[in-house]
Amino acid sequence: MNKSIVSYLVKRFLRFDRDQPFIFLSAILAFLGITLGVMVLLIAMALMNGFDKEFKKQLTIMNYPLTILPKFYGSVDEKLLIDLETKFENLNFSPYIQSSVMVRSGSKLEGGYLFGVNFKKEAEVNSVLKKSIENVGFNKFDALVGKSLMQEFSLFKGDKLTYIFTNVEPGGLSITPKLKRLTVKSFFDSGLSAYDKAYSYTSLSALRSVLHMPSNIYDGIHIYSTNPKKDIEILRKELPVSVAIKGWWEDNLNFFAALEMEKTSLFIVLMLIILIAAINIISSLLMTVMNRRGEIALLLSLGATTLEIKKIFLYLGVIIGIGGIASGIVLGFSGIWILGSFDIISLPKDVYPTSTLPLDLRLLDFIFIVSGAFFIVLLSSYYPAKKASEVDILTVLRNE
């Protein structure tokens, strides 16, 4: 039997058989199941990657790519800042001081952090802050607050906010917390409600005067880097032992580990859809084998080899599977394009970092999905093909 006969029989067995319509129906169900599985997997992985990328983007901004902090026995001072700016001209540095505070407006209270920064330098390391302070002039006791805090407190530009500091100072016969009223000059919108509500910014000189800190001492230095995982190792070698440096990812290890586990779990669960569809391939091919036993036996008696018979049914399964995979890829990319181009689903911005669906299908995920689906199809086609090649010629021809 030559290749042309094998291909002829494959085409013939793929046709609709009026006598055995359930065989064709089972093959169609297998095709649709694989198509659906591949399509859903592509869209789901694109969504998971999109959210992952968006969260990393937002967290990089508000947590800063790199941060230098003092160790328990050290300090971050002006000399260190000048040394770093001299040695690493490709990086942007912004010194800061910070304090835990309670923000009060009328009877409302909200906990958070107040950062004292040089707004010009901070704008170089924080794109959200840079956008919010354009064409805005800040005086000493002005404040920049998050959009969520402004909405919660119903604030407007020019309103006064009272900041209650965790530091206390003596007052007569009692000890009272430090209070300072700041003027709301502008607001920022990072896209993450937790940061917009908890973070406030004022000038370095204002917070220094409240906390009575020396003019050359900082609580830390924010650093902007386009490649923080590489730069952190270079910076670490240049830093004195009295300070430490950390990357934004070190504060969010558990969060991203949970996202990665969720993505893996989703991939496995959705791959089961393809596995269920593959069962239909097995049942369809087995029914074809049972229905075509006489023809198989006749082919074997005329000189066809068991390998050629195996190829016929293996090709049948692979064609159904590859057809389903190809259709799933087309529908999957179409779905990704539609969801990414049109505002079909709107997300609450106070929960998610974006109001539209973020989609990002990585090449590696695409390869895993297609290769995994193909492997399942190949595996499910092999058993029926093997059974077809094991047909007993004498028994079948005697009975049929």
Structure description:
- With 400 residues, the protein is an alpha+beta fold.
- It folds into two domains: 3-59 and 254-399, no CATH class; 66-224, no CATH class.
- Helix content is 57%, strand content 20%.
- The protein contains 14 helices and eleven strands.
- The chain has helices at 3-14, 21-63, 78-87, 119-125, 127-132, 147-153, 193-198, 204-211, 228-238, 253-291, 293-301, 306-341, 363-389, 393-399, and strands at residues 66-70, 76-77, 92-105, 108-117, 142-146, 160-171, 174-188, 199-203, 217-218, 220-224, 243-247.
- The strands form two sheets. A six-stranded mixed barrel has the order 3-4-8-5-7-6, surrounded by four helices. Strands 2-9 form a two-stranded antiparallel ribbon.
- The longest helix has 43 residues, at 21-63.
- It is elongated.
- The model has no long low-confidence stretch (mean pLDDT 82).
Form type: elongated
The biggest sheet amounts to:
6 strands, mixed, barrel
Spatial ordering of strands, largest sheet: 3-4-8-5-7-6
Low-confidence stretches are none
Helix fraction, binned, reads: 55-70%
C-alpha-based Rg, rounded: 33 Å
The total beta strand count reads 11
The CA-CA distance between the termini, in Å, is 23 Å
Structural class: alpha+beta
Average pLDDT number:
82
Instruction: Give the domain tally.
Output: 2
Tally of DSSP helical segments: 14
Please trace the helix and strand order, writing H or E for each element: HHEEHEEHHEHEEHEHEEHEHHHHH
Strand content: 15-25%
Protein name: FtsX-like permease family protein
Family: Belongs to the ABC-4 integral membrane protein family. LolC/E subfamily.
Transmembrane segments: 21-48, 266-291, 312-339, 359-379
Keywords: Cell membrane, Membrane, Transmembrane, Transmembrane helix
